[in-house]
Amino acid sequence: LFGLLLLFLLVDSSSSHTPVNKSIMSEAQLKPIFELFAKKEKTCPSSDVNTIVRSQGLLVTEKDIDDAKSSAGISDSADLKQVVAVCKSLASKKDSDLATTLKAAMAVFDPDGSGAIPQTELSHVIRNMGEKLTEDEVNTVMLNAPDDGFGGVEYGKFAIQLAGLCGN
After folding, report:
1. Cβ–Cβ under 8 Å, residues 10 and 32
2. Which of 48, 76, 153, 156 has the maximum number of C-beta atoms within 10 A of its C-beta?
3. CB atoms within 10 A of CB 3
């Protein structure tokens, strides 16, 4: 989920809202995300490759990623070509119905089955999962999440939004 939120933030901050085509996973498609982690360097930390991979809508285990990183020759850091190689080697792990998977994951936070989760709950989850987002990043996600009109997020629509960013 964090990887997809990162992609959501990246697309929201860009001028063009072009979905990522998962069947190709080209260097050009991965470059903007890679650059977020490389921070003007030619490589990014090996640990960030995991988040980049997951931002592509791939459902992979840590072992899957570790094996792919090893095959690509990644140890401490990775360049863009190595990250592309990892993503391409894991392309078969793409979720064919990402929106449904995301909706099921978010439904855990909807005990009454209303189809919405409180914005405070989603905000809390975003702030406390894996990588910590800044306050501005959390606010960007929340401002773009579909509002149910009662202080909640329509997570079914939100899941479709996120999946759409992945070309799914």
Report:
1. yes
2. 153
3. 21
Q: What is the pTM of this model?
A: 0.55
Rg (CA), the chain: 16
- Per-residue pLDDT tens digits for 141-155: 788 889 998 988 898
End-to-end CA distance of the chain: 15
| The pair of three-digit structure tokens given for residue 150, joined into one six-digit string | 């009662």
**Alpha carbon separation from 52 to 48, 74, 107 (Å, rounded):** 6, 14, 25
**Number of CB atoms found within 10 A of residue 125's CB:** 17
3-state helix, strand, coil in the chain (%, to 5): 60, 10, 35
21 neighbors 167 (Cβ within 8 angstroms): yes
Q: Which residues contact 36 (CB under 8 A, 6 or more apart)?
A: 6, 10
Q: Which residues are registered as beta bridge partners of 58?
A: 94
Give the separation between CA 124 and CA 130, rounded to whole angstroms.
Answer: 12
